[in-house]
What we know:
With 395 residues, chain A is of the alpha/beta class. Chain A contains 12 helices and 16 strands. In chain A, the strands form 4 sheets. Chain A has a 6-stranded mixed beta sheet, sandwiched between helices.
Amino acid sequence: MGATTTKIVAVTGNQAVAEALRQLNPDVMPAYPITPSTGIMESFTKFVSDGKVDTETILVESEHSAMSACIGASAAGGRVATATSAQGLALMWEMLHIASGYRLPILMALVNRALSAPLNIHGDHSDGMGMRDCSWIQLFSENAQEAYDNTIMAYRIAEHKDVRLPIAVNMDGFIISHSIESMTFIPDAEVKKFVGDYIAIDPLLDIDHPKSIGALVLPDYYMEHKRAQHEAMLNAKKVISDVSAEFARLFGRKYDLFESYRLEDAEVVLVALNSAAGTIKDEVDRYREKGVKAGLLKPRVFRPFPYEEVGAALKNAKAVCVMDRADSYGGYGPLFMEIASAVQPHRGPVLFNKVYGLGGRDLMPLDVDQLIDETIEVAKTGKAKMVKEYITVRN
Amino acid sequence: MSTPTQETPLTLKALTHKPVHLTGGHRMCSGCGAPTIVRQVLMAIDEPVVIANATGCLEVSTCLFPYTAWQVPWMHSAFENAAATASGIETMYRSLRKQGKLKKEMKFIAFGGDGGTYDIGFQALSGAMERGHQLLYICYDNGAYMNTGIQRSSATPFGADTTTQPVGSKIQGKTQRRKDLTRIMAAHNVAYAAQASPHNWKDLMTKVRKALATNGPAYMGVVSPCNRGWRSQTNDSILLSRLAVDTCYWPLYEVQDGKWTINYDPKDRKKPITEWLKPQGRFKHLFAPGNEALLARFQELVDQDWESLRKLQEMSKS
Ligand SMILES: Cc1ncc(C[n+]2csc(CCOP(=O)(O)OP(=O)(O)O)c2C)c(N)n1
């Protein structure tokens, strides 16, 4: 632990993120309510009403306008944040590409929820995976503490001069957003110091140096813009590592591009994002006690995806079960595709893919045990009976 | 940046000395009403101004990478969201001013075509006006989606030939009457709502000044001839904008503090609508034998709207 005096509190994931946003004190926050992220907006607007932040809110009439207003406000020259879920994110989709295309370091709290249809308000990762190709940095969080810490780190990453891209901090709807956990807040003054002042680059409101933002760009220059975005994403990986290292030094909690849980010598590995990792860790421990070399890899950074590092971490495993809480219908699950790409340069383990937890369906310890058992079997035989399969589902 | 202590008088002599904020060399069609309108708007303003622009002819033709015709801060982000983008810019301005991080006073204007305003941008516009941002939204209304090739919008006049309601053997152009957006904006109880036309530059510029002097959101609809879509002569733009007003198709009026004021009433010199329709190829079919009823219907719609506008003026006097 650092020399910091920290406060242990019992809060929901939404309250934790709202608290982080209060401490970050963005200049403008456009937002629109949607379950399960609404609580962030409600807690934050209370801070506004009580004069605890300098933030001006824009209580827009839709998420499309929320992201449009984020883009206008960020380009104007200040810090901007918003929060949303599922349909709200889907409605923003057009503007997500514009936020990153204009290289605006907007912060989004994304409380993961299933996409319609059928209508469902519960947690899965369909929304987050839908923004995979939007050139946003994507951080995933197992619990309220991680969601809070990722949010505190977000501006430092997004605003770095080698990056300048928008960033989304994900946490699971309801399972995390609405459950109370005990966690630690960093004191206000230390957050303020850690985050620092905003440095605007070519702000629109610099009236003496007029800028045109949002030109029509034809085939002669379009690709250079996109290539620059690609490079910024590559740069983000190092920036995330550096910022996380500084965070660990100051506040004692250590974050990498992904979390390796008993992975060092693991032969049987599960890969999962967000809250499922908590359940999996318990079961990994139980199997370790039984002498099974089980482990977990939990990606924290989904974009930019750390292919080399993940590949190196998995190359000695015998079998890897990749768990997707979203599907790419007619393809493999989105996380599976990344893991397969990461492992591809190595002779590597046998991979297989399970789709679980859609629309908030529970993942029970017993379900995890079955997956570990199957992974042990695959490790033994060197063959997966089915590459992709839905689990905990009626036939 | 010098902020003049006195407003530039709205005289041609004084205005010729004002800097041009939308330079020549842009790629708008010759005879297009939009750049004329934008220049009049920008010339009316002495304070620093920041522009948001919806996707459309004005946007694609004035800022083609790596060039720009804009000499003031300008931002485009998408088609349906000029009002929302401007809301963000204006709110950041207020936030930074409140925190003492920004000193200068600025004005905020959003430009959109009728498609980006009446149709796809309607919700964002309504939201921005309701929230009360300090911004002036100006729709240059050429009566169709011109940038994408003259498709119908809800601002397209009755009977007009467009590429999506083309004149055929069964259908004679647009079958619906146009949406009256200026009145819808007035119904938002905005600080200021008005209609203007580039042929009457003094009226237009006065309205821009009034709009920006109010303490709240403002909306202006400006008729914007488009020779490509209207199938008219490139040198007839100003004439056609004048005729739109003289026929009362596009009355010049303003609404402020619940008071409706018609700024130009032709009275007994009100021209028949055919004078505006005739020079426009998009209405050619209305003059064909057998379509007399459509022409009469067009006149009826104009008369209805004009009469109800006069009533609104009357009623708001008391
Ligand atoms: C969401 C979305 N839908 C459609 C388009 C295609 N589009 C670009 S400009 C335009 C028409 C613009 O019409 P208007 O607003 O009337 O302006 P004008 O071109 O006449 O100046 C359309 C349909 C788009 N850019 N974005």
